[in-house]
Design brief:
The complex is a heterodimer of chains A (about 325) and B (about 150).
Chain A lengths: L5 E11 L4 E8 L13 E8 L2 E8 L10 E6 L7 H7 L6 E5 L13 E7 L4 H13 L3 E7 L8 H7 L4 E5 L18 E7 L1 H14 L6 E5 L11 E4 L5 E4 L5 H7 L17 E6 L2 E2 L7 H6 L2 E3 L4 E2 L3 E4 L2
Parallel strand pairs in A: 7-8, 7-10, 8-9, 10-11, 12-18
Antiparallel strand pairs in A: 1-2, 1-6, 2-5, 3-4, 3-6, 12-13, 14-16, 14-18, 15-17
Chain B lengths: L12 E6 L1 H6 L1 H6 L3 E5 L6 H9 L5 E8 H13 L7 E6 L3 E6 L5 E5 L4 E3 L6 E9 L4 E6 L3
Parallel strand pairs in B: 1-2, 1-3, 3-4, 5-9
Antiparallel strand pairs in B: 5-6, 7-8, 8-9
The chains are: A alpha/beta (about 325), B alpha/beta (about 150).
Protein name (chain B): Dimethylamine monooxygenase subunit DmmA-like C-terminal domain-containing protein
InterPro entries (chain B): DmmA-like_C
Pfam families (chain B): DmmA-like_C
Chain lengths: ~325, ~150
């Protein structure tokens, strides 16, 4: 399987943040400093499990300037296919794993005069490093953070301790829901950032455009790429003529990997473009947030981690 | 910054900042706008009041500024500092094309018309040859000593 260049680390510490969220501290096995990163960065973690290699990406929640260790926060997902379940139930202090170098597909805008973060649930994680970076720089920011209740509100105390004037929490069990109308009150020069479940991001991005935010001032990070409503199976033909079937419940990337093909990939969310392959024939259903409108319309490239064949067969360059 | 103002639809609010002549240049666009607010420049622009006016504006505001070409750059710099961008503002300059010249000796800024190639620095009276080296920071062309 294709694997990017990695850093060997060990689990230095595990803390229970809430009933469903654990924070893991990772430090270099070789005792070296880890690379510095920028606010909003994430890493891919490579877990060698009995069922095979699990690759999962998590936002770095520690301070971007701290290079002695990294921290990530993992929420136990009800529908976990192994990633968060493995982190919660199997990973112990002292375990060794491989991680990627930090990558950032959700960077802070250097053009913003004021940064406003909207988080729902575990969507808080990328904002933790962003706020640390902004506080050090003396930049202007605020956080709107929605959670079911105080008990499930990860990092609530930390946030109120370090950013007492910038944080506002909304608990749905108290009927205090985060409202899109708060977008109307931001001043010119504000950039907004959204992270949370799909519906939350869709609702807030649409509202932001409606209010008048220019698309360059609206930033978001999804946990998962948009899901095809009616995914259908399709076939791909490789350069050497091999035919591979892509089932309706698997991605093209997974189908290629299952056949032992070293297809490139990284984010697995349609954001980074690493997995892009040329398409010689066939029509593509694009689900990524990487290609431009013009590139999509050209129908000559596909991001294998999320996009699918619209026609029953694609001829791809690999 | 010399084109005509173009009306951009569907904005929450339109801001018109201009002197008397500039307001006339923006009148067509004004007629098409619904929610609008005005800032009128006097002969000597009050940049502090202009900044305060822009600072209170909320997302969805669209800005039109019309001033003499000698002043329009300063308006643009201030507006961009506060977060207005090419997508949210238009700057319409009018009148003679005034060139700013940075004196290489005393660092003062001189204003002159475009056609002139040599001027006398108003501050230190050095004869300056206007080069084509432009400084974005000073919004000025570098003036070298014309005679050594």
């Amino acid at each position: 399987m294709y694997k990017e260049k990695t850093i060997p680390v060990y689990i230095k510490n595990i803390e229970e943040v809430t009933k469903y969220v654990k924070r893991f501290t990772l430090a270099s096995i070789e005792g070296k400093q880890l690379p510095r990163f920028s606010g909003g960065s994430h890493i891919s973690t490579y877990l060698e499990t009995a069922k095979g290699l699990l690759v999962r990406t998590y936002s770095l929640t520690s301070h971007p300037d701290v290079t002695s260790h990294y921290q990530i926060a993992v929420r136990l997902n009800d529908q976990s296919k192994g990633g968060s379940l493995y982190w919660h139930n199997n990973i112990k202090a002292g375990d060794k794993i491989q991680i990627s170098y930090p990558k950032n597909q959700f960077p802070l805008s250097f053009k913003a005069k004021h940064h406003v973060f909207y988080a729902a649930g575990i969507g808080i994680t990328p904002f933790l490093s962003m706020m640390k970076e902004l506080k050090d720089k003396g930049s202007s920011f605020e956080l709107h953070y929605a959670s079911k209740n105080l008990e499930f509100c990860a990092f609530y105390e930390d946030l109120n301790k370090h950013y007492p004037h910038q944080c506002r929490c909304y608990f749905s069990n108290q009927n205090k829901r985060i409202q899109t109308r708060s977008l109307e009150n931001h001043h010119v020069g504000t950039h907004v950032y959204f992270c949370g479940p799909e519906a939350f991001i869709n609702e807030f991005t649409s509202a932001a455009y409606r209010v008048g935010f220019h698309e360059s001032a609206v930033h978001f990070e999804r946990f998962h790429p948009p899901q095809p409503k009616n995914a259908a199976p399709f076939q791909v033909q490789l350069k050497d003529g091999t035919l591979i079937q892509v089932k309706k419940d698997e991605t093209l990337l997974q189908a290629l990997q299952n056949q032992g093909i070293e297809a490139p990939y990284s984010c697995q969310a349609g954001r980074c473009g690493t997995c892009e392959l040329s398409v010689k024939e066939g029509e593509i259903d694009h689900y990524d947030s990487f290609l431009s409108e013009e590139q999509r319309n050209a129908q000559d490239r596909i991001l294998t981690c999320v996009s699918r064949g619209k026609s029953s067969k694609l001829v791809i360059e690999i | 910054m010399t084109h005509d103002a173009v009306f951009i639809e569907n904005k929450r609010k339109y801001l018109f900042c201009a002197d008397q002549h500039g307001m006339k240049l923006l009148s067509d666009v004004m007629e098409q706008s619904s929610e609008k607010e005005f800032f009128r420049f006097e002969e000597e622009p009050d940049w502090t009041s202009f900044t305060s006016f822009l600072e209170k504006q909320k997302i969805g505001s669209y800005l039109y500024v019309s001033l003499p070409k000698s002043e329009i750059y300063q308006a643009r710099v201030l507006a961009e500092k506060l977060g207005f961008s090419e997508e949210t503002a238009q700057f319409i300059g009018y009148g003679e094309n005034v060139v700013r010249v940075f004196c290489s000796r005393c660092h003062s800024i001189n204003k002159t018309v475009e056609e002139q190639r040599e001027i006398l620095c108003q501050q230190c009276v050095l004869e300056l040859s206007i080069s084509d080296h432009y400084s974005k920071k000073h919004n000025a062309y570098l003036g070298y000593a014309a005679k050594l």
